[in-house]
């Protein structure tokens, strides 16, 4: 499911948005971000506005559901099923707060939390570096042996 969501979001939606923006010519007027996207799609008439609104609505809804689910599964794994209900309440409160505070504050907070996700991964990489080196050497050695076996003799 995650790979499918990434495909539709990044490849399809972003590519189509980019094509509309570039073909509209509004990027030459110094607009950026939401103003540029809105102007480009509004240039397509009522259909463009509807496509933009429906696309934005489905993107926002699927993002909220997806991140909520990932967080819920992480909370369940770390603290057990009893932690799910408090997590859901906290999630709803965070969505409400995010809807009423300044947009730059929401983006800054999201960027900080996304950057903090790297911390446990970096700790795991450091803790498991011996295993990583051993597996890499094993893979490289086996790969070299296979290449030598398949090489033509003559």
Q: What would the keywords be for this entry?
A:
single chain; 154 residues; mainly alpha; 2 domains; flat
Sum this structure up briefly.
With 154 residues, the protein is mainly α.
Strand-helix topology:
Elements: H1 2-24, H2 33-42, H3 46-79, H4 84-100, H5 103-116, H6 118-127, H7 129-150
Rg, alpha carbons: 23 Å
Q: pLDDT average, as an integer? A: 87
Give the count of helical stretches: 7
pLDDT under 50 segments (min length 5)? none
The overall strand count is 0
The percent range for helix content is: over 70%
Gross geometry: flat
Q: Return the string of H and E elements.
A: HHHHHHH
The tally of structural domains comes to: 2
Structure, explained:
- The chain is an all-alpha fold and 154 residues long.
- The chain folds into two domains: 2-101; 117-154.
- It is 84% helix and 0% strand.
- It contains seven helices and no strands.
- Helix 2 (33-42) crosses helix 3 (46-79) and helix 3 runs antiparallel to helix 4.
- The longest helix has 34 residues, at 46-79.
- The N and C termini lie far apart (50 Å).
- The relative contact order is 0.04.
């Amino acid at each position: 499911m995650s790979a499918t969501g990434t495909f539709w979001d990044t490849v399809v939606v972003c590519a189509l948005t980019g094509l509309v923006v570039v073909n509209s010519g509004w990027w030459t007027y110094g607009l950026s971000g939401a103003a540029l996207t809105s102007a480009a799609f509004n240039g397509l008439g009522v259909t463009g506005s509807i496509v933009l609104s429906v696309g934005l609505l489905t993107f926002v809804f699927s993002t909220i559901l997806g991140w909520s689910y990932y967080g819920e599964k992480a909370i369940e794994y770390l603290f057990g099923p009893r932690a799910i209900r408090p997590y859901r309440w906290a999630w709803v409160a965070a969505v409400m707060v995010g809807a009423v505070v300044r947009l730059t504050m929401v983006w800054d907070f999201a960027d900080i939390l996304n950057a903090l996700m790297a911390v446990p991964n970096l700790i795991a990489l450091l803790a498991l570096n011996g295993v990583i080196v051993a597996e890499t050497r094993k893979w490289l050695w086996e790969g070299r042996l296979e290449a030598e076996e398949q090489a033509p003799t003559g």
